[in-house]
Specification:
With 118 residues, this protein is mainly beta. It has a single domain, classed as Immunoglobulin-like (Sandwich). The chain has one helix and seven strands. A four-stranded antiparallel β-sheet has the order 4-3-6-7, with no helix packed on it. Strands 1-2-5 form a three-stranded antiparallel β-sheet, with no helix packed on it. A hairpin with a 5-residue loop joins strand 3 and strand 4. The longest helix has 5 residues. The protein is elongated, with a radius of gyration of 18 Å. The N terminus is likely disordered.
Length: 118
Amino acid sequence: MGGLMAMKRTVLILVGVLILCDGAMGATLNLRATWTANTESDMKEYRLYRTDGGRSLIGVVSHPIASYGFSVTVPGHNAGNMTFVVTAVDRENNESPDSNASILDAAPPAPPKNVKKR
């Protein structure tokens, strides 16, 4: 139980977003989550969750790897925000509290205003 109490909070960062649009059908977002590896000696793995609209496990990564690439399909053009967190898990399967949330705005940008044709 000491591992759970001593686990350091993990910071999650989503990097590199590539949007492959498929018109009105939506888009596939290719994402890479990265975080600072926990330095405790009894670390086993990290778990990445999507937490908007519920809690879904995205993937499990063995320690000391501190990144995970994944894809998310976004329906239509008004997806809104997606929220992700990561947790650290020790060899006794104690899971840390969630990292700070990393929020991705998957809504398309607004069209430019005041554009003049030449």
